[in-house]
Design brief:
The complex is a heterotrimer of chains A (108), B (546) and C (243).
Chain A: H1 8-29, H2 36-56, H3 64-88
Helix pairs in contact in A: 1-2
Chain B: H1 13-17, H2 22-50, H3 61-80, H4 83-97, H5 105-127, H6 141-145, H7 150-177, H8 190-222, H9 235-269, H10 276-289, H11 305-333, H12 342-365, H13 367-373, H14 377-407, E1 409-410, H15 413-440, H16 454-484, E2 486-487
Helix pairs in contact in B: 2-3, 2-4, 2-5, 2-16, 4-7, 4-8, 4-14, 5-7, 7-8, 8-9, 8-10, 9-10, 9-11, 9-12, 9-14, 10-11, 11-12, 12-14, 12-15, 14-15, 15-16
Chain C: H1 14-49, H2 51-59, H3 63-88, H4 92-122, H5 135-138, H6 146-162, H7 166-203, H8 213-237
Helix pairs in contact in C: 1-7, 1-8, 2-6, 2-7, 3-4, 3-8, 4-7, 7-8
């Protein structure tokens, strides 16, 4: 962790940005843009997360090693998601997860 | 011994159970992993005796399922995964980098206690009904239908995962921040590189098995539906989550052993290792690529063909860095001055057996072949060649190599060489027939088999008894040597690592003065302090270096 | 643990000790990313398979409480960062104040979560025998807006028409809801414990410009927990809100 002291002003600016992001996310959720809803939500969340990591967690002022650690963790999560989706996304349509209606078998 | 070392610095059980000295903690680990090795070995013995006859007379089918499950759980989670890192890694890493201890000594001790707690849960599970789901805990058997003690076992393995995570965390931070002056990354012993790579796998993979078992346990307790097709869930999702860790876990088991071999070979060939940076890099490459291949365990369980193709291709890639290591070890031997001390016998055994295990892994990675040999004894033989022929030989060889440093005593050499050869012979007799059995179609995890397979099964069991002897002998003579062995000097082999520049056994603080490193690793030629005389034929010419 | 300025035996310098502590926490956070990541993977696979059930499930969550909690948690991250700053510039009293503020905001968050969980119990939306997505629209609770409830009933009926197994797939959604927010809440409780320990130490004046590593390190943990929620909020609360 660096000795660089981040000024409260910057923290307040970041805080305001995070509030703005939250507001936009909620507003956008009520607009119908089809499959882009989830994209917008995730993009905004990622921007917010990045701001927290860079400024609140001082990653912007940290040694290269810390930044590598952060990048690696995100990369590994991405691997887990992406490679698993190579299975789910390439399954034949008719054997999708949802089985035929079984609600009559439930409610034991 | 008149001087004070870590063994006699303080006495009493509290000084051991509350120690933060990485060397004492390593010995605590040595005791516990040996106990679990016995337990796992006991189950293996029962399996092999049961399989002496085609219809199996020793145990019921349900019990047989429990035997192979508990054998797997005990051996993988409580012996193989900790073994080298927790025993040898803990002991040696601070010594090898010139530090007084690991970065977080109290977390190091906590890691052992967490392991013991996890072990208690699992032993409780074994004692109160056992486990019959296979160590792979596939759903919905484990989450719904099994009547065995799944929940405590899953809790125990979950807890044990944190032990692994803390050890990996400790190693990574230590290697980054605690190296002595002059100990640059490329002067580090390859053992340290291997453990760094292992630790990467530990911290990136273990959390996923933790969450997976948590989900499976919750599903079992509260009838959730993630892995239950009746509620819309998908058993394959469990397998994805499970193998995301469990495949890299096998690299947790083999990378440290490779690190051990990389230390033994230059020492007993009296030559610098060939291709140092390639071996270091290949350790990292194995750790990384190892995370990209997990669904090769699921080729025939229902994943899509395109995923299978992807993972098959990636699985071939991961063999490359392993092969690089084998080539480099072999090249190190070329024009070396080879002495057949016990650790070297284990190292040779490792190279040959790992080669066979690794190549047969490629057979399994091939989709067309895997259709036929998946879930047969071919797979069983493959992974035992790697895990026993590779990892366990690395562990036992490493114990022998560093025994003088750990205890200050030498073991009886002739007996040790005999034991090593016994182990090698016993191992091959146990597991080579299983390749043939698998090729001929004998399924794994079955309590019976067609009568025409009996001869091979009997051979395998016979081999197991010899293998057991090969394990028993070191347990006896190593223990004996702690009291009656010849006193070892600082550097009996001699070897070039920093750990050999302090007393055997080392003082609690490891080094009287923090060392300053100015030499390259494995540099036998430029180390007059090793006492290798100029006239000896042992020093190899400079070419053939990295 | 650390006393002010005291060097632990295995370290050579204070700088090394500080560097080590920070790297240790970052590496630990990596494990947390993968830990939560497993649940995020489960969520992803299940949402893609059962988008109707996830949509209807998400709409039963109270967006005001969810957004409010998001604001509260981000505020707590601000106060946590300010606590670190206060230590760095030597304002010891402010350190305690900001730490207490962080703890307070965290407690508010947990309180709201408890309220939400209770609502789910009352509406029969906890996975298990009594789970029934049709229950709440058919059984109004005191304080419910009957018009909203009627709309909800229509949405639920529509969803049943699209996916007759909504009660099964909806349970997957709620299992993930409870699992992910529950795990998150557990981490917040642990964070609260860490904050209590920090507050106690700050009252003793331990944190100075030379020595404030524990505050920084706990701060890293707290910010991480905030980041998890930053993702949980849209993923759980904001599915198909436009319908």
């Amino acid at each position: 962790m660096s000795e660089h002291i981040v000024s409260p002003k910057i923290y307040l600016v970041i805080f305001a940005s995070l509030m703005l992001g939250t507001g936009i996310t909620v507003w956008a959720a009520f607009r119908d843009v089809g499959k882009f809803n989830i994209v917008i939500a995730l993009v905004i969340a990622t921007i917010k997360a990045t701001l927290v990591v860079l400024f609140f967690m001082h990653a912007r002022y940290s040694p290269r090693r810390t930044q590598m650690v952060i990048v690696c963790s995100v990369f590994w999560l991405a691997i887990m998601l992406a490679l698993t989706l190579t299975d789910y996304d390439t399954r034949p349509r008719d054997s999708r997860l949802a089985p035929p209606a079984i609600s009559h078998l439930l409610r034991a | 011994m008149p001087h004070e070392d870590y063994l006699n610095a303080r006495y009493g059980i509290r000084s051991w159970l509350l120690t933060t000295d990485h060397k004492r903690i390593a010995l605590l680990w040595l005791g516990s992993v040996t106990v679990f090795f016995f337990i796992g070995g006991l189950f293996a013995t029962m399996i092999r005796i049961h399989l002496l006859t085609p219809t199996g007379y020793l145990v019921t089918p349900e019990t047989y399922n429990k035997l192979f499950t508990m054998h797997g759980v005990a051996m993988i989670f409580f012996f193989l995964i900790p073994s080298i890192p927790a025993v040898l890694g803990n002991f040696l890493i601070p010594l090898m980098i010139g530090a007084k201890d690991l970065a977080f000594p109290k977390i190091n001790l906590l890691s052992w206690y967490i392991y013991m707690l996890g072990g208690c849960f699992v032993l409780y599970s074994f004692a109160t009904g056992g486990l019959d789901t296979g160590w792979t805990f596939y759903t919905p058997l484990s989450s719904i239908y099994s009547n065995s003690a799944v929940t405590p076992a899953v809790i125990g393995i979950f807890i044990n995962g944190f032990s692994s995570i803390l050890t990996g965390l400790n190693f990574i931070v230590t290697i980054h921040t605690m190296r002595a002056p002059g100990m640059t990354w490329f002067r580090l012993p390859l053992f340290v590189w291997a453990h760094y790579a292992t630790s990467l796998v530990m911290i990136l993979g273990t959390p996923v098995i933790a969450i997976t078992l948590l989900l499976a346990g919750l599903e079992r307790m509260f009838h959730l539906g993630f892995f239950n097709p009746a509620l819309g869930g998908d058993p394959i999702l469990f397998q994805h989550l499970f193998w995301f860790y469990s495949h890299p876990a096998v690299y947790i088991m083999i990378l440290p052993a490779m690190g051990v071999i990389s230390e033994i070979i230059p020492t007993f060939a009296r030559k610098p290792i060939f291709g140092y940076s390639f071996i270091a890099g290949s350790s990292i490459a194995i750790a990384v690529i190892g995370f990209l291949v997990w669904a090769h365990h699921m080729f025939v369980t229902g994943e899509s063909v395109y995923a299978a193709l992807t993972f098959s291709f990636l699985s071939y890639l991961v063999a490359i860095p392993s092969a690089v290591k084998v080539f480099n070890w072999t090249s190190t031997l070329y024009k070396g001055s080879i002495s057949w001390d016990t650790p070297m016998i284990y190292a040779f055994g490792f190279i040959g057996l790992f080669l066979i295990g690794g190549l047969t892994g490629l057979f399994l990675a091939c989709l067309g072949l895997d259709i036929h040999i998946h879930d047969t004894y071919f797979v069983v033989a493959h992974f035992h060649y790697i895990m026993v022929g590779g990892a366990v030989m690395g562990y036992v060889g490493g114990l022998h190599f560093w025994w003088p440093k750990i205890t200050g005593r030498l073991y009886p050499e002739a007996l040790a060489r005999t034991a090593a050869i016994t182990l090698f012979v016993g191992f091959n007799l146990t597991f080579f027939p299983q390749f043939i059995l698998g090729y001929l179609g004998m399924p794994r995890r079955y309590h019976t088999y067609p009568p025409e397979f009996q001869v091979l099964n009997v051979l395998s069991t016979a081999g197991a008894s010899i293998l057991a002897l090969g394990y028993l002998l070191p347990m006896l003579y190593l223990t004996w040597s702690m009291r009656y062995g010849k006193v070892a000097g600082q550097n009996p082999w001699p070897a070039t690592g920093l750990e050999w520049k302090t007393d055997s056994p080392p003082p609690t603080e490891n080094f009287d003065v923090t060392p300053e490193v100015t030499w390259e690793p494995y540099d036998f030629k430029n180390r007059p302090d090793l006492g290798l005389t100029a006239g000896a034929p042992s020093l190899a010419p400079a070419h053939g270096d990295d | 643990m650390h006393r002010t300025g005291e060097l632990y035996g295995q370290f050579e310098t204070l700088e090394q000790q500080k560097e080590t502590a920070a790297l240790g926490m970052w590496v630990f956070l990596v494990t947390e990313v993968l830990f939560f990541g497993g649940m995020f993977l489960t969520y992803t696979i299940n949402r893609r398979a059962f988008s109707t059930a996830f949509g209807i499930g998400s709409n039963t969550l109270d967006i005001k409480l969810g957004a409010g909690n998001t604001v509260v948690l981000i505020m707590s991250s601000l106060t946590m960062a300010m606590a670190v700053w206060s230590a760095q510039v030597g304002k010891k009293k402010l350190v305690s104040i900001f730490l207490i503020a962080t703890l307070g905001l965290g407690t508010v968050f947990l309180g709201v979560k408890a309220v939400e969980y209770k609502q789910k119990f009352d509406h029969h939306l906890v996975p298990g025998r009594s789970f029934d997505m049709k229950y709440h629209p058919a059984h109004p609770m005191p304080g419910d807006d009957l018009e909203e409830l009627d709309k909800e009933k229509q949405e639920v009926d529509k969803a049943f028409a699209v996916d007759p197994d909504i009660n099964a797939h909806g349970q997957l959604y709620f299992s993930l809801y409870f699992g992910m927010t529950g795990l998150h809440a557990l981490h917040m409780i642990i964070g609260a414990g860490l904050l209590l320990w920090l507050i106690k130490a700050s009252f003793a004046g331990r944190f100075t410009p030379q020595y404030n590593t524990p505050v920084e390190v706990v701060g890293l943990y707290w910010h991480f927990v905030d980041i998890v929620w930053i993702y949980l909020f849209p993923l759980l609360y904001l599915i198909d809100r436009h319908r």
